[in-house]
């Protein structure tokens, strides 16, 4: 019967529906595949119905299972609302705030800010999640997020708090370092004569360079990655010239900024939260603190 069903079974059910497999659901829930499988089996036994068809390609939800999805989501929403009511009545200076950010922001921007917040609010706890997924806010896996792309979901509230500048750097480890320093002296076009490291989605860099009169394509970036920190590490190891956030490279003595007066582009930082969370006193407090610190520090 549904009245006696463990909520953890329902959470596993929703995640398998979302991901289509036990293994992906296990990773998302930080559990194991056998555990998720047992949850699904137990839930089907409790309800006396088949929720998924097992195939070689994964778990396909049945028509009855799909009927159950919306009801379980309503239960999840009600559970959140109950938690929110309790939070609103609790002490504003206690509790936990989970903040989500990209790897670079989580690594370089947030630590000194969290230090300040902990000094000011010692009874509060903070959890940092490194991800760019907007879904983690919509699913309430995070309370507040710092995003490099403006979310457009209607249930989120967002504001631009600052911008982070991107510069061009080369490592002293790069075999052609002396040649780079000698050749590149105010002439951006000479960049294409050297190896270039770039983000997997180099479109924004290409657009920024084209505005400076340097026209290139994806083929001019023989080494690419989808992570800012890996991009930074590749540049630092001397695999080529590269573009990265100034906050990452400015204190590295092995890196030299090329054409420092050329502003290639900057990345906006959007402070984002679920719309309902702004009515929560504790979340609103930290949201406003983050907005003020970021706007002052990276104005």
From TrEMBL:
PROSITE patterns cross-referenced by the UniProt entry: HTH_LYSR
Swiss-Prot/TrEMBL keywords: DNA-binding, Transcription, Transcription regulation
Protein name (Swiss-Prot/TrEMBL): HTH lysR-type domain-containing protein
SUPFAM superfamilies in the cross-refs: Periplasmic binding protein-like II, Winged helix' DNA-binding domain
InterPro entries reported in the protein's UniProt record: LysR-type_TF_proteobact-type, LysR_HTH_N, LysR_subst-bd, WH-like_DNA-bd_sf, WH_DNA-bd_sf
Molecular function via GO: DNA-binding transcription factor activity; sequence-specific DNA binding
Family: Belongs to the LysR transcriptional regulatory family.
GO terms of biological process kind: DNA-templated transcription
A Pfam family matched in the record: LysR_substrate
Domain (HTH lysR-type): residue spans on this chain: 5-62
PANTHER family, sorted: HTH-TYPE TRANSCRIPTIONAL REGULATOR (PTHR30537), TRANSCRIPTIONAL REGULATORY PROTEIN (PTHR30537:SF3)
Annotated Gene3D superfamilies: 3.40.190.290, Winged helix-like DNA-binding domain superfamily/Winged helix DNA-binding domain
Top-rank taxon, per record: Bacteria
């Amino acid at each position: 019967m549904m009245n006696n069903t463990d909520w953890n079974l329902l959470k596993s059910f929703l995640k398998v529906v979302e991901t289509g497999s036990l293994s992906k659901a296990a990773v998302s829930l930080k559990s194991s595949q056998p555990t998720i499988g047992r949850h699904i089996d137990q839930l089907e036994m409790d309800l006396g119905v088949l929720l998924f068809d097992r195939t070689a390609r994964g778990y396909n939800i049945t028509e009855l299972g799909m009927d159950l999805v919306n009801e379980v989501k309503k239960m999840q929403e009600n559970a959140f609302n109950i938690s929110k009511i309790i939070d609103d009545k609790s002490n504003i200076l206690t509790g936990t705030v989970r903040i989500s950010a990209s790897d670079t922001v989580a690594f370089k921007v947030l630590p000194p800010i969290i230090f300040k917040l902990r000094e000011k609010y010692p009874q509060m706890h903070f959890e940092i999640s490194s991800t760019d997924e907007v879904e983690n806010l919509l699913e309430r896996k995070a309370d507040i997020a710092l995003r490099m792309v403006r979310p457009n979901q209607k249930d989120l509230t967002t504001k631009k708090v600052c911008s982070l500048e991107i510069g061009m750097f080369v490592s002293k480890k790069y075999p052609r370092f002396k040649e780079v320093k000698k050749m590149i002296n105010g002439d951006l076009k000479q960049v294409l004569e050297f190896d270039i490291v770039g983000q997997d989605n180099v479109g924004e860099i290409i657009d920024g360079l084209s505005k400076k009169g340097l026209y290139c394509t994806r083929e001019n970036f023989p080494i690419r990655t989808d992570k800012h920190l890996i991009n930074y590490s590749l540049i630092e190891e001397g695999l080529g010239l590269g573009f990265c956030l100034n906050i990452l490279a400015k204190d590295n003595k092995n890196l030299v900024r090329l054409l420092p007066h050329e502003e290639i582009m900057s990345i906006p930082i959007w402070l984002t939260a679920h719309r309902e969370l702004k009515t929560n006193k504790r979340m609103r407090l930290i949201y406003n603190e983050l907005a003020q610190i970021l706007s002052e520090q990276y104005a």
